[in-house]
Amino acid sequence: MVNQSIMKTIEANFDGLVGPTHNYAGLSRGNRASIHHAGKVANPREAALQGLEKMRALSELGFVQGVLAPQERPDIAILRRLGFTGSDLRVLADAAEQMPAVLAACCSASSMWSANAATVSPGADCADGKVHFTPANLINKFHRSIEHDVTGKILKSTFKNPDHFMHHQALPANNDFGDEGAANHTRFCHDYGAQGVEFFVYGREAFNPQVISPQKYPARQSLEASQAIARLHQLDPTRLVFAQQNPAVIDQGVFHNDVIAVGNRNLLFCHEQAFVGQTAVYESLTKAYGSLGFNLDFHLDFHIVEVAEQQVSVAQAIGSYLFNSQLLSLEDGGTMIVVPSECEHEPAVWGYLQGILNDSSCPITDLKVFDLRQSMNNGGGPACLRLRVVLNEQELAATNQQCLINDQRISSLNNWVKKHYRDHLSEQDLADPLLLTESRTALDELTQILDLGSVYPFQN
Ligand code: SUG
Fold first, then answer.
1. Which superfamily does 9-249+377-459 belong to?
2. Fewer Cβ in 10 A, N or C end of the chain?
3. What is the reported pLDDT for 5?
């Protein structure tokens, strides 16, 4: 007998809507695309429409798709905390003149990469049966460290009902507890509604200097941060696996685990150089997965699809974002891989993808390609743009319905973008007082479209 409550649990993807100030400021050392595109002219309108097209297409295919509102940028409140005073326009002008780099950081639309918004654990994994959210402190990069407060408010407005949703504060704001959210977190399960194994990948151990860390680029996630989240979310220690990301690949530009590995249900798709002690990591995952209770109708063997350096090099994986893909379970039991169009332009990657699609023993059966160039130029692919939230029927019903994508919502959001967004934004434009007014007008209207209430500092 199939358990109906298990049957009806789905994994929803909540994509971050690109904000009106999307730009290329070269803010993320260790993220090669961000550094490479520093100073280039961005197209916020195209960026937002590209993101909405992914949401529309996946919703049309029958996946539950949600949207998370962007942040208020320029962040005048943060500039005030940095000592700029006077009217909002004075603050903007003084920051532009005295500290243009700080202003650029306060204008970043980086909250679009909602995989970094929070770590989310489904009710089936948490002792109290609620869905737990911990906004990521993103402490490693100034422009991202100013996201979590409003992120927490947006998540609370999207997942409001305290009977179903538990919201934690971000971890303490120190590098020892550096946390980058779901980009370093994957969950494996037979079925979304059943208990799963939560897999946390960290870059360094803050309180154990013996453990080797990357030499060139920062390891943004600490083991201690991941452990704190597991405690906060009341996860069962027997269904947890922690693994260290290979420091050598961080030094090549793999700044989050989701640039080199992705998982869904019973499938881990990763590069052979993703983890320290890769074989032992596979053993721990297989063992933890094997100990999961399961309904006979839903037994799935654990699959690891490992890509060798000879097939796709780490550099090719970073250039194409092959692993920053979404793996989506299809009704027919297959799995669709959603990749950015950069994969088509990298022959080794495209050849690899064609190979697995033709291989009947590979669980990846379908492919979908999206043009996400505007986001990709800052190092954000399909998986960066989405936060996964596993929801049963009651939890889905308790979710803010205005934040769920359907034809009508897509059309309002597309119109909203076309009405408010510029198609050209350079670093100099960030000082334009009109951009501040335009952004606030747009966001004020958005909070109504998404029924969010007053989540932004300028509204309070
Ligand atoms: O944190 N880029 C983001 C990209 C985040 C990608 N997310 C995941 N892998 N899940 C970052 O490095 C660049 C902004 C700029 O340079 O203007 C930036 O923040």
1. Succinylarginine dihydrolase (3.75.10.20)
2. N
3. 44
